[in-house]
Every structure is written in C-alpha cells, then in structure tokens.
Amino acid sequence: MSGDRLTVTPIGVGAAYARTGEVQSSYLVRAGRTTLCLDLGAGALNALQAHVAPHDVDVYVISHRHPDHCVDVLPLHVYMYWGPGRGSRARLITPHGVQERLRALGSDTGWDEALGFELVGDGDLLQVGDAQLRFAAVPHVDETLAVRIERAGRALVYGADCAASDALVALAAGADVLVAECGDGPVPNALSPHMSGGEAGEIARRAGVRHLLLTHCFPEHDRDATLALARDACPSAVVEWAVQGREYIVG
Ligand SMILES: [Zn+2]
Predict the structure, then answer these.
(1) How far apart (Å, rounded) are the C-alpha atoms in residues 204 and 67?
(2) CB-side neighbour CA atoms (13 Å) of 8
(3) Model pTM above 0.85
(4) Confidence of residue 173 (pLDDT cuts 50, 70, 90)
(5) What does the pLDDT look like over 97-107, one tens digit per residue?
C-alpha cells in the first residue's frame, strides 16, 4: 500500500499574513516511499515536525520567492547545519530568485553544506524517488511555478499563488486533487495577482478536477462566501477548504 500511496497534508494554509493559528503555505506530500514538502512559509518548519523529521524530507519544492512561501528555509538551514540534520543536506528545488533572496537574510556559514539548491523552470519534468513532477509557470510574480505530482496513475496539482490562467488548467487536466489559493476581496489582491473563489472553481471545472482544496485565504476575505462561489463554479467536484494537519488521500 505504501508503495502506491499519494497523499497531501496541509502543514500551513495561511496567506501572506494569516489568521491566528494558521501557519503560512506548506504542504507535505507522500508519494510511495518518497516524502516531499511544497513550500515552507512562516511557522512551517515547526509544524512539519509533527509529521516528519525535516531531514527525512526527500525534497523541498519552493514555488516562488514571496516570503510566505519560503522564509522557513532560514530555520531549515540552522536545523540542517547546527541542529538534528547536521551531516546531511536538504535538497531544494526552486525557480530563479529564491536562493538569492534567502541567502541575503541568512548566515553564510554552512549554507552550501546544509542546503542543495536546484533550479527548475516552466515545462520541466523531474523524477524524485517514487514521484514524477512537472512544473508550469503561472502568473503571479516572476518566476512562480505550479507543480503536478503523479504516482501510480494518480495526480495532485499545487497551483502555488497565481491568477487564473490556461497554464494552470493544462497542468491540472484530469487531476484527482487540485490545491488552489483563492479569496474574495479587494485589498491583498491588489498586490500580486491571486484568484477569487469563482476563478478557482472555474479552473477546476475546466480541468476536470475531482477534488478542489481551497487555501491561502487572507483574513479580510469571507471564507464562506468564497467557498460558495467556488462550489457554484465547479458543481461536479468536491470543493472544500484545506484543513491544516489533515491528511487527504489523492485518488
Ligand atoms: Zn505569492
């Protein structure tokens, strides 16, 4: 069973500033015997340890350079170089611009010994242990990469932060689960492009997704109204807010 499993556990569902009790963006994925962590926002490294030791994660995938998706790489560096992870090296897969921003804030001591960065881009395919990964650039901030993870005929797609786009529809085509950020309200959406609930639902409907997990909702946004709009746009799928710490089986 563990050889074929594909699951996603939201570690953090909070936005760029979050509700009380929310951790910022992070998702633990188990694909067969392979463990992946998608994004590592504020508080994620602490919360992740309820599920897995950070040095047992096979790969960290960072979607883009916004701090709410990557800032806990800084404590990961400390953990890997001076803490329980010493002697091993975390593998991080990122688009351009992530390492440079983090390195400017962190300590140079042990950076390269503790953290191994690899660049990926739009359209790249990667095999990581039992998981197949495919990346697609999505409209948010340069560069932002959504990722599709497949294992044993099932597919999970993480949309990162993004505006509605044909690129996300194509990446999510036929996926069992799509994790999509959304919220309805004017204030934070003026900063970088994000999706409304209706747009997230429309993406899932066009892609033929079976299960839509909504996430990354700013505190000003009405979660009930956003959920209702997403469900109206995609009546064929299960549509719900992602819950921190809950494991969802993909497929
Ligand atoms: Zn962002």
Answers:
(1) 27
(2) 28
(3) yes
(4) very high
(5) 999 999 999 98
State the distance from the centre of ligand 1 to the C-alpha of 152, rounded, in angstroms: 30
Q: Record the tokens describing residue 234, joined without a space.
A: 């995609």
> Which amino acid is located at 4 in the chain?
D
Give me the pLDDT at residue 191, please: 67
Q: Give residue 161 CA to ligand 1 midpoint distance, Å.
A: 5
Ligand 1 centroid from CA 87, angstroms: 32
C-alpha 181 – ligand 1 centre gap (Å): 10
Tell me whether the omega of the peptide bond preceding residue 143 falls within 30 degrees of 0, making it cis.
yes
CB atoms under 10 Å from CB of 244, counted, come to 16
Could you read off the pLDDT of 181-234 as tens digits, one per residue? 998 876 555 567 899 999 999 999 999 999 999 999 999 899 999 999 999 999
Expressed in angstroms and rounded, the spacing between residue 16 Cα and the centre of ligand 1 is 7
User: How far apart are the CA of 94 and the centre of ligand 1, in A?
Assistant: 14
Distance 4 CA to ligand 1 centre (A): 32
Q: What is the pLDDT of residue 187?
A: 54
Tell me how far the alpha carbon of residue 180 lies from the centroid of ligand 1, in angstroms.
12
CA 55 / ligand 1 centre spacing (Å): 26
Half-sphere exposure of 150 (CA within 13 A, CB side): 14
